[in-house]
């Protein structure tokens, strides 16, 4: 099997060996209470339950009428104790619903639905009702991604099993333990998007999973589910970061470029994380909403790395020390991987739909060096997988020239962190890009407000005449 890749990228130490062979084990918070953020991807939701309500596992607890939204469900059966803000990933306060589990097994799952017999509209409604979002990190509502812009032709659905972030191994374990569900979810996604082909993309450090997946594909072919739905294959990509980025994966696997400012659908592709595809299969076959999350817990300060599955809303701190055992010397806690993860103030934050891992790092595993002046070496340009010039973008931002920053590709940056990783001056490039993007969006909002005010004045003047 040939190995493909993209230009640029970096090769950080993988550090997966401590957890890559550990099965996914179930865990439950020792407080028996979950804190579920009411919004976990897409437009903001509003709670549909009140303090004192008794809820079942899988019952909807927050939703919105907005198309770009995904409802949130109770991950345990119990009583709503509080609805208040608390710290969540990103070190921001967000509204959460606290549910104390009562130990029962009451569920309020959706009825099973045959994804190959129902209409496309019914299928999309099921995906939305199940609250599915991208589980690779972005938490983009899955029903939106499965409904590409009108006129788009989707040729491929790519199952993203690259898992290029160091330490993280939960996607690999998901494929090893639930290959049939991943393949079934891919077939369902092909049917939803009309794609004639599906490809499961793996980095070549996971080549041992190819036979497992091919066996699941062969089994699925024994039970054909519709024209073209069985055209599924496995493709190996070079082990390199950020191989799992949508744009990089599309380039590596099918040789197509996503245009500047465009979506993968513009290149005829839809990309879904393997965990999302597993959840997609469960949403149809079992009627199960997205109420559980598998994640990797690792890092040098973690005494016993694990791959866990916990109810969404579980506070990481509530798993310490009963499930997660730590060594002295925790220097940093990350939600996510070391390249794109977010450093947290402490461990008392909830696991969300897009929490792929939690890392407890030692001082030796972290970079605490101060910035020094940029020397213009160009290392960031050679490493950038989006073929941008990070040094020019950051100079434009620092100089207050947002138009120049946009011209140099600010809004095309995927914030993967490869530029900061290779920068010898340790310039905090990604942080500056995030600030620059926020300034661009704020300016766009002000421009819209000015245009709306001008239109209102013109309408008023017209009326006075």
Order of helical and strand elements:
EEEEEEEEEHHEHHEHEHEHEEEEEHHHHH
CATH class of the domain at 3-17 and 111-285: Alpha Beta
Please state the average pLDDT score.
Answer: 93
Helical/strand content category: alpha/beta
CATH architecture of the domain at 3-17 and 111-285: 3-Layer(aba) Sandwich
User: What form results from the Cα inertia axes?
Assistant: globular
Low-confidence parts lasting 5 or more residues at pLDDT below 50? none
Strand count: 18
> What Rg, in angstroms, do the CA atoms define?
23 Å
Distance between the termini: 74 Å
Helix content: 25-40%
Q: What's the tally of helices?
A: 12
CATH superfamily of the domain at 3-17 and 111-285: NADH-ubiquinone oxidoreductase 51kDa subunit
* Side-by-side strand order of the widest sheet: 2-15-14-18-16-17
| Largest beta-sheet characterization | 6 strands, mixed
Strand content: 15-25%
């Amino acid at each position: 099997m040939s190995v493909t890749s993209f230009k640029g990228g970096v090769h950080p130490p993988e550090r997966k060996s401590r957890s890559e062979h550990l099965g996914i084990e179930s865990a439950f918070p020792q407080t028996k209470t979950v804190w579920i953020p009411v919004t976990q991807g897409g437009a903001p939701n509003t709670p549909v339950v009140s303090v004192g309500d008794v809820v079942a596992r899988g019952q909807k607890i927050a939703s919105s009428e907005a198309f770009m939204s995904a409802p949130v469900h109770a991950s345990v059966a119990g009583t709503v104790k509080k609805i208040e803000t608390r710290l969540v990933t990103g070190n921001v306060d967000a509204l959460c619903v606290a549910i104390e589990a009562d130990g029962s097994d009451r569920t309020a799952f959706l009825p099973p639905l045959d994804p190959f017999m129902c209409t496309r509209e019914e299928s999309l409604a099921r995906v939305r009702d199940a609250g599915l979002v991208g589980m690779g990190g972005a938490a983009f509502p899955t029903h939106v991604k499965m409904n590409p812009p009108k006129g788009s032709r989707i040729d491929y659905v790519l199952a993203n099993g690259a898992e290029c972030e160091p330490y993280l191994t939960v996607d690999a374990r998901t494929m090893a333990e639930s290959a049939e569900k991943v393949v079934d979810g891919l077939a369902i996604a092909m049917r939803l998007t009309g794609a004639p082909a599906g490809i499961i993309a793996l980095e070549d450090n996971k080549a041992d999973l190819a036979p497992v997946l091919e066996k699941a594909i062969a089994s699925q072919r024994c039970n054909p589910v519709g024209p073209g739905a069985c055209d599924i294959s496995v493709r190996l990509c070079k082990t390199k970061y950020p191989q799992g980025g949508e744009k990089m994966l599309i380039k590596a696997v099918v040789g197509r470029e996503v245009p500047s400012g465009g979506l993968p659908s513009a290149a005829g592709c839809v990309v879904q994380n393997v965990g999302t595809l597993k959840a997609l299969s469960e949403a149809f076959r079992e009627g199960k909403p997205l109420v559980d999350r598998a994640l990797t817990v690792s890092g040098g300060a973690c005494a016993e790395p694990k791959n866990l599955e916990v109810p969404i809303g579980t506070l990481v701190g509530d798993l310490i020390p009963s499930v997660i055992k730590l060594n002295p010397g925790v220097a940093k806690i990350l939600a996510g991987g070391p390249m794109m993860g977010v450093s947290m103030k402490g461990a008392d934050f909830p696991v969300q739909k897009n929490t792929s891992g939690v890392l407890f790092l030692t001082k030796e595993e972290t970079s605490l060096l101060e910035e020094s002046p940029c020397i213009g070496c160009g290392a960031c340009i050679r490493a950038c997988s989006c073929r941008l010039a990070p040094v020019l973008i950051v100079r434009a931002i620092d100089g207050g020239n947002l138009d120049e920053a946009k011209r140099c590709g600010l809004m095309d940056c995927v914030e993967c962190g490869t530029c900061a990783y290779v920068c010898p001056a340790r310039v905090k490039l990604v942080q500056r890009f995030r600030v620059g993007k926020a300034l661009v969006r704020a300016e766009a909002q002000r421009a819209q407000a000015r245009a709306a005010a001008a239109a209102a004045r013109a309408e008023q003047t017209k009326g006075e005449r």
